[in-house]
Amino acid sequence: MSGAREMTPARLVRRLGFWLAAIALALWSLAPVYWIVVSSISTRIELYSVPYKHWIPRAPTLQNYVDVFTTGPKYRAGGFLPSATLLYSGVRNSLLVALLAAACLSLLASLAGYFRGRSFLFFMMLLLVPLPVWVSLIALFQLMSVLGLIDTRLGLILLFVSYGAPLYVWLMQTYIRATPRDIEEAALIDGASRFRALRTVVLPVALPGLVSVFLVAFLTVWNAFLIPLIFTNSEAAQPLTVVLSLFIGQYEVAWEAMSAAAVVTMIPPILMALFFQHYVVRGLALGAVQ
Amino acid sequence: MRRIRSEERTAYLAILPVGLLLACFVYYPAISTFLMGLTDANPRVQGLEGSAHFIGLRNYGQMLGSGEFWASVWRTVLIVLMVLPLELAIGLAAAMILNEQFRGRAVLRTIAIVPWMLPPLVNGFTWSWILNGDYGALNGLLYQLHLVTTYHHWLASPSAQLFWVAVAQVWTRFPFAMVVLLAALQSIPQDVVEAARVDGARPAQIFRSVTFPMLLPAFTVALAVEFIVTFQIFDVIWSLTAGGAAGQVINPFTKAVMILNYEVVFRNLDLGLGSALAYLILVLSMGVGYVFVRMLYERGA
After folding, report:
1. Is the CB of residue A176 less than 8 Å from the CB of residue A114?
2. Are B278 and A135 in contact (CB under 8 A)?
3. Domain that holds residue B239
4. Do A51 and B140 lie within an 8 Å CB cutoff?
5. Alpha-carbon A84 to chain mean position
6. Are residues A32 and A114 in the same domain?
7. A111 is in which domain, residue-wise?
8. Which A residues, 268 through 287, put their C-beta within 8 Å of a C-beta on chain B?
9. Residue of A nearest to B277 (CA)
10. B12: Cβ contacts below 8 Å, ≥ 6 apart
């Protein structure tokens, strides 16, 4: 909005309309998140009051967070699955699986992305990109059972890496292709091996791409639900999304506890939006339109 | 010569781990699942030890002839038809707002991207709490604004459930459309817009005859991607209307194709039929996605 020019009534109306639209966009995007956060720090009495008017809690409390991490069974469906550590193990599993899968994907993607177009295998991988996990789900379940990988974090990591690989190899390759060829050639002529050239010359230049791959992979794995829903069934491997779905009771939901658990699940994605927006948005958008 | 050889070997070595993983966990199960779709495999009928029989394309015939399948396709299409226009409209409006220069632009951009970053499962849960008939925020807000006099159960009717599933999906996905359209808006050369303005065109005219045509390729990309994403909707429905808790009956009113697929395989254990259904969904969603892409190329983008 160029504001320096003279304010005619028409311009004033246009400007007012613009700000109304901008505020509406902010409200639409943020209000649901705000409501969950408010729910998570409200007392049950305030939250369940009718008609509701505690949009800013009068007595904000962190008790829901304490409860949800320590007295799990109180909030479980009918209390028939006692587990005070359910949320704790969810955080642990989500963090471990997302971090390790993202690390593996970054490593494999830089290796394979660097040697793109050099072999038949690479074309096969490109061919595979549109294949979603659910067309192989049934045989995959049997395979994972035979291998003893059901309900293990290792199994989840293997699946996320396998199904993510084509996308991230492609993504990494678009970044590596942008690095200047001649620096790399110079290093090779000086007697560096391919791997050494990759490590010392290409990767530093393609680092933003690597960061992007790591963050997008982390976020995708953290947010995933279908794969862990099918391939996990206990605290040994269930990530936060699956734990959260278990909080939806058959007869009732303890919304203040549920909200606290949801806020915990939302923290890494929101941190990414705040601090790494550039990397993540670019990576996600590129990956989607591929 | 030797140099090339060793290079070739390093290249294979670098790609080998990915290739092995793909062969093992993607290729093999995909083919094997397809083959299972040609059998009557069902552990409930044959027992865990029993063997399935080859029955050709009968599973596909059974699926294509079943009312349940077409009902779920219809529900999915309804969701897609609600989501795509709403999402692209909101995405375009948001992109046009962010295309202006104003104070707080970076903050607004960050805020608008948040819903896309969150797990879709959590978004479905968030909306189910907002829409809760006893204590939900929507009731509280509308009551306080004197727009309603009693609390409503927003998810009471089947059509309302589909509608709110679409709203939650739009909320989750509109930032994607926004990002794609914003990139396209920013690549429009300013002198073209300026020239139209100098010629006395009004903003609405400029939008219709200059901006919009230049946005069309980006629109097509967003449409194709979002069609495939929405056709395969699962997480949002699971936490918003499907019922959720283990062992619970799956809500029939929002049974989109992916939910039906889950039910056939993991509740009914009808593995043969489920495999066939998975490939039918793939063909349906990719087929229409392919049509969008063809449209895109024919426009010369």
Report:
1. yes
2. yes
3. 66-298
4. yes
5. 25
6. no
7. 89-243+262-289
8. 269-270, 272-274, 277, 280-281, 284-285
9. A135
10. A119, A121
Please give the angle made by the CA atoms of B261, B74 and B173, to the nearest 5 degrees.
75
ipTM of the complex: 0.89
Regarding whether A97 and A52 lie in a shared domain, the answer is no
* Domain contains B50: no
pLDDT tens digits, one per residue of A76-104: 544 444 456 788 889 999 999 999 999 99
A241, A223 Cβ separation under 8 angstroms: yes
- Distance (Å, rounded) from C-alpha B133 to C-alpha A140? 40
| Cβ neighbours of A195 in B, within 8 Å | 10
Residue B72 · residue B255 · CB < 8 Å: yes
B245 contact residues in A (CB cutoff 8 A) = 77, 246, 248-250
* Residues of chain A neighbouring B246 (CB-CB closer than 8 A): 246
* Same-domain pairing of A222 and A140: yes
Return the ∠ at Cα A36 (arms to A34 and A40), rounded to 5°: 115
Query: Over the Cα atoms of chain B, what is R_g?
Result: 24
Residues of A in contact with B139 (CB under 8 A): 51-52
**pLDDT tens, position by position, B48-104:** 666 778 888 899 999 999 999 999 999 999 999 999 999 999 999 999 999 988 899
Residue type, B266: F
Q: Which of residues 251-270 of B touch A (CB under 8 A)?
A: 258, 261, 265-266
Same domain for A280 and A165: yes
Contact status of B286 with chain A (Cβ, < 8 Å):
yes
The span from the first CA to the last CA of chain B, in angstroms, equals 42
Smallest Cα distance from B78 to chain A, Å:
22
Burial pattern B97-123, b for ≥16 Cβ within 10 A else e, equals bbeeeeeeeeebbbbbbbbbbbbbbbb
Q: Is A216 left (phi over 0), alpha (psi -120 to 50) or beta?
A: alpha
In a domain, A276, yes or no: yes
Regarding whether A217 and A180 lie in a shared domain, the answer is: yes
pTM recorded for the entire structure: 0.89
